[in-house]
Amino acid sequence: PDLPQLLRTITAAGGSLLQPEQREALEGLRLVGFLSGLAPHDLDELALGARMEHRRRGDVLFKVGDPGDRLYLIRRGAVEIESAGGVRTLLKPPSHFGEMSAVTGEPRTLSARVAEDADLLAIESRSFRSVLLKNPFLALELANALSGSEPPAKP
After folding, report:
1. How many CB atoms lie within 10 A of CB 25?
2. How far apart are the first and last CA of the chain?
3. pTM for the whole thing?
């Protein structure tokens, strides 16, 4: 079945397939600048392929060379990203990371460790690529985000 069409039909009828955790995921997705132009049904599709992860300080999310199977949005807490050369960057909400490997399927080029207990929204790369392939606008917005010229998040 055509999942996006099914979501549009149900939403138009006043219902929603989204469970409480997926509704929370949808709230997080709406805060990401490069996703701001997506249609509601595309955001719903991403929310269906997402899950909340509660991680503790010191947890390693991934290391250089690990598979790029998801991207993350920080809802609460902080994550430290470290390059192969040892350069460290501290990310806080509503930052996102891991999108490059999630899109390309290439191994991770950075490591990520939880710096403060965190609530993270993890989006499976398969779901993200599916929405990306249907939305040339999203590909452009993602390129802008990766180049550092991402539009600000919606309030």
Report:
1. 26
2. 35
3. 0.76
